[in-house]
């Protein structure tokens, strides 16, 4: 499984205003998806911590090692999906396969940046692979996400994130999360072309994933936290099709102020939610 993350370029223009704080995803106003619904069966492990090969939730392999995400092996063609033990499982709350669901465990701080509006930094050291925070908000259906995007003006900040998971059989699963009015601290993360975080869809109770951000490297106290809005880690090469869209949409794109050595000058751009219903991937 591979995934792609996309946000409209104005996502770095953070503003502090009336926000209903929610540490977890909630159902959007369209009501199409309920991220709190429990649909997965639980494991029957009667131990304090589940073991690989005996736990239903770990049938694809171990997810974590000492609270840190286990890196994908070089021999693995696709990134392994991450399934944590859930509310129906018989294992204890101390199970090592329960990490993202425990929520924020680190001391983070929202602060004002020089050029990027508000940002988020850590007040303590974070080890590589450690879960940092979730990007949580309203989980929307495609039509509602597109309606909200198209209703925005050039002065509006956009927080809607689109995550596309590419399955081995060619199917694509999409998740739309909007923390504009209801969300958590993840909404204050800025983009970087050389980020210190990366996003992984983690599933707990259902197929609706938690958009979990993990440390891509050791992070020192005081460092600003960031991730690549496009989903490419450390600016992996873009496809010819992506390059064509970027060249066509340069007039609409916003400048990037990440300051990295490999800065692409512009923030990532995804025009899919601006397409007409009959021209966008066959959706209706």
Automatic annotation (TrEMBL):
Pfam families: Pre-SET, SET
Domain Pre-SET: 41-103
Domain Post-SET residue range list: 252-268
Reaction catalysis annotation: L-lysyl(36)-[histone H3] + 2 S-adenosyl-L-methionine = N(6),N(6)-dimethyl-L-lysyl(36)-[histone H3] + 2 S-adenosyl-L-homocysteine + 2 H(+)
One record GO biological process: methylation
Organism domain of life: Eukaryota
The UniProt record lists the keyword Transferase: yes
Chain ranges of the SET domain: 106-230
UniProt feature coiled coil, ranges: none
Catalytic activity, EC: 2.1.1.357
Uppermost EC category: transferase
Gene Ontology cellular component list: chromosome; nucleus
Annotated InterPro entries: H3K9_Histone-Lys_N-MTase, Post-SET_dom, Pre-SET_dom, SET_dom, SET_dom_sf
Record keywords: Chromatin regulator, Chromosome, Metal-binding, Methyltransferase, Nucleus, S-adenosyl-L-methionine, Transferase, Zinc
Entries under Gene3D superfamilies matching the protein: SET domain
Protein name (Swiss-Prot/TrEMBL): Histone-lysine N-methyltransferase SETMAR
